[in-house]
Specification:
heterodimer; A: Helix Hairpins; elongated; B: mainly alpha; 29 helices; NUOK/Mnh_C1-like (chain A); NADH_UbQ_OxRdtase_chain4L/K (chain A); NADH dehydrogenase (quinone) (non-electrogenic) activity (chain A); transmembrane (chain A); NADH-quinone oxidoreductase subunit NuoK (chain A)
Chain lengths: 106, 674
């Protein structure tokens, strides 16, 4: 395990995380469908998780991995709430397009 | 052993809690929250007695309890100062407040008044503010509670706000005393600017610093390098402005007769223990400062003497019971000011004490008569009440004898000592002698109007059906009257200086010894110290101290008896007539209070332009700046809010752009791109 980790330099992990993050960001900026939003947010969060695990491995410290586990648990909760919001959105507007509800602006 | 001084804040807070309880829950309590007020003032009274015992045990208390603002130059604090003077005043205020609360059961509750929770809340706050003022250990705290007292008087005088008279009287009381307080406020600021502290007691207190500055041991700030003595006189006179307003001295006395519109127990409280007493107490509190400036003392003495005579003359022609008492209050506080100005610190405190008891007694007695007469206050509708309400009559008589200064009632001793002090110090000081002459002239006038009032109210035949069949009063009226009646008879015994001097008995001048820290107190706050500071030397007539005492007492007693005798001749008949008509034009002048109200209104109209200019400045410039600032914010806000579109994608884009901008900024600064 340690041998495999040592063979791959940490910047590859970081590049992977950055790529995943950018895909998520792209999804948020271009899509208007709330479900896509949710998935994009998941992607960005997992990019962060990859960073955690990568650095944890690099420094030989387990704290980062524990953090990643916490983030996964939180992400599960976040998905539950997010889907709840989308459900309410659909009931109120008959659509899950996030550009439709703009009542709360100035 | 628990320390009595630990309970000093409780003395003030108990009535304050009764205010909160009456205000918040008075509706749901029996008697509109009266019992809360009675319990609170009774508690305060007992604690005050305990504190006075501790002072008698040789101790004193001067602590800063709370610092609410601290700066480089000075700090603003709340604290408590308990010395013989404030301990005595605490006992007086709490006792009178307690009796007034009990009396209110008879005057307000039994008469079926509405709005009782508001009334008892007002009484509680009034008492609490006065107690806070009494224990104040610095001038600023005193000023704040001084203002609270003024506010409470406004609320209580205007208690019957549905009638036209009381609200207008309340406004007048508030505005006139505010006018004096304005000078007081400037005085407080001047004290801070000059000394950097406003503490009353201790090494670094402002009277002590002023003393050192006059001796040349201490440098103080004065505006434009003014002479220290002149500047202290100015500061003293500024603070005196507040005193003149609150203690109803000429020319700011006009609010007090109008304040009779308030419920009678409130009048008793205002005149005996709170509000009006506050002014005189303030001078006594900072007497170490006033004693340093002879000019201020002379002004105080002259204003006092003049007010004593001036108010007494107006009392002679009034038809309403409470109006007579109102002018007698102004006149009696004039005596106290005369005493303070004449270097008679103890005499003034003595008269403050005796007056508190006999004036509360007279007002409560008047309240009892007013209940009996179904709220008719005109003395010409009364008469013959003596046989029908004996308790009220005899207590009222005791109070009247004390007010008139008849031996051996309380008022005789205190008034006599004031006149004695003014005389012996005045023999070397012409201005003071003028004050003495006016004080002496006021004596027969006082006796005359007092007994005119007694005879018209209680003697002769009933002049109306109401007076023939008065409504009976209950224990809650008679109880307080009895207590105060006894006090009006015996309070003089605490300070029988003439007896001591004539008979050569040592040590029966208890009040002198009390205020001279003989039992306990704070250095620099003793009557002895004040006498050393004062500018006066004593002169005697008829070759010595003892003859001077005897002649002084004989003259004032003789004049009082003469006034009483005249009243007896004119009004103690079966059906008295209005003899004042013989005064002709003078009567109209007196009856209309020397047209001073009209004069003040006239001045107000003449100065309308100034007030208008000040209003324009306030509305246009001061408010203009404030409104300008707010409209800039408003306009900016209404533009900037446009970026909040409600589209989540745009928010996310902005976040991303912000992040990128931040990264670029950090990168450029950190030299990443080089």
């Amino acid at each position: 395990m340690a041998a495999v980790a040592a063979s791959i330099p940490p910047q590859w992990y970081l590049l992977l995380a950055a790529g995943v993050f950018c895909i998520g960001l792209f999804g948020i900026l271009t899509r208007s469908d709330a479900l896509y939003f949710l998935m994009s947010v998941e992607l960005m969060m997992n990019a962060a998780n990859i960073n955690f695990v990568a650095f944890s491995l690099y420094y030989g410290d387990l704290t980062g991995q524990v953090f990643a586990l916490f983030v996964i648990a939180l992400a599960a909760a976040e998905v539950a709430i997010g889907i709840g919001i989308i459900l309410v959105l659909y009931r109120n507007f008959g659509d899950i397009d996030v550009t439709v509800p703009t009542e709360m602006r100035w | 052993m628990v320390d009595a001084f630990a309970y000093v804040p409780a003395v003030v807070l108990l009535p304050f809690f009764s205010f909160l309880v009456a205000l918040g829950a008075g509706k749901y309590l029996p008697k509109g929250g009266a019992f809360g007020g009675i319990a609170a003032t009774a508690g305060s009274f007992l604690l005050s007695l305990w504190i006075a015992t501790a002072v008698a045990g040789g101790r004193a208390y001067d602590e800063t309890l709370y610092t609410w603002a601290a700066g480089d130059q000075f700090e603003l604090t709340f604290g408590a100062l308990i010395d013989p003077l404030s301990a005595l005043m605490l006992v007086i205020v709490t006792l009178v407040a307690l009796l007034v609360h009990v009396f209110s059961l008879g005057y307000m509750n039994d008469e079926g008044e509405t709005g009782l929770p508001r009334y008892y809340a007002g009484l509680g706050l009034f008492t609490a503010s006065m107690l806070g003022f009494v224990v104040a250990d610095n001038l600023l705290m005193a000023f704040m509670f001084f203002e609270l007292v003024g506010l409470c008087s406004y609320l209580l005088i205007g208690f019957h706000f549905r009638e036209p008279g009381p609200p207008s009287a309340a406004k007048k009381a508030f505005l006139v005393t505010r006018f004096g307080d304005y000078f007081f406020l400037v005085g407080v600021v001047a004290v801070f600017a000059t000394f950097g502290t406003a503490a009353f007691a201790g090494e670094g207190s402002f009277p002590a610093l002023a003393e050192a500055a006059l001796a040349g041991d201490q440098a103080v700030w004065t505006p434009g390098g003014l002479d220290v003595m002149t500047w202290f006189t100015v500061v003293g006179l500024l603070v005196l402005g507040g005193v003149v307003g609150k203690s109803a001295q000429f020319p700011l006395h006009t609010w007090l007769p109008d304040a009779m519109e308030g419920p009678t127990p409130v009048s008793a409280l205002i005149h005996a223990a709170t509000m009006v007493a506050a002014g005189v107490y303030l001078v006594a509190r900072m007497y170490g400062f006033y004693a340093l400036t002879p000019t201020t003392l002379a002004v105080i003495a002259f204003i006092g003497g003049f007010t004593a005579l001036f108010a007494a003359t107006m009392g002679v022609v009034k038809d309403e019971l409470k109006q007579v008492l109102a002018y007698s209050t102004i006149s009696q506080y004039g005596y106290m000011m005369l005493a303070l100005g004449a270097g008679g610190y103890v005499a003034a405190v003595f008269h403050l004490t005796t007056h508190a008891f006999f004036k509360a007694l007279l007002f409560l007695g008047a309240g009892s008569v007013i209940i009996a007469m179904h709220h008719n206050e005109d003395m010409w509708d009364m008469g013959g009440l003596k046989a029908r309400m004996p308790v009220t009559y005899y207590t009222f008589l005791a109070g009247s004898l004390a007010l008139a200064g008849i031996f051996p009632f309380a008022g005789f001793w205190s008034k006599d000592e004031i006149l004695y002090e003014a005389l012996v110090h005045g023999l070397n000081e012409p201005l003071l002698l003028g004050g003495y002459a006016m004080g002496l002239l006021a004596v027969p006038v006082t006796a005359f109007y007092t007994f005119r009032m007694v005879f018209l109210t209680f003697h002769g035949e009933p002049r109306t059906d109401l007076a023939a069949d008065p409504e009976p009063v209950r224990w809650n009226v008679k109880g307080p009257l009895t207590v105060l009646g006894s006090l009006a008879v015996v309070t003089g015994l605490i300070n029988m200086v003439p007896v001591q001097k004539v008979l050569g008995l040592e040590g029966i001048d208890y009040l002198h010894r009390w205020l001279d820290n003989e039992w306990g107190g704070i250095d620099g706050l003793s009557s002895h110290h004040y006498a050393d500071l004062g500018p006066y030397s004593s002169g005697y007539i008829a070759g010595g101290e003892v003859p001077t005492v005897l002649v002084g007492a004989a003259v004032s007693l003789g004049l009082a008896l003469a006034g009483l005798g005249l009243a007896w001749r004119l009004y103690n008949v079966a059906s008295p007539t209005e003899h004042t008509a013989k005064l002709g034009g003078i009567k109209d002048v007196l009856y209309n209070n020397y047209y001073l109200d009209e004069l003040q209104v006239w001045i107000a109209y003449r100065t309308e332009d100034i007030a208008g200019g000040a209003d324009t400045f306030d509305q246009g410039i001061i408010d203009g700046v404030v409104n300008g600032v707010s409209s800039v914010s408003l306009a900016g806000g209404s533009r900037v809010r446009r970026i909040q579109t409600g589209l989540v994608s745009q928010y996310a884009a902005m976040l991303t752009l912000g992040l990128i901008a931040l990264l670029v900024l950090i990168g450029v600064n950190g030299g990443w791109f080089l």
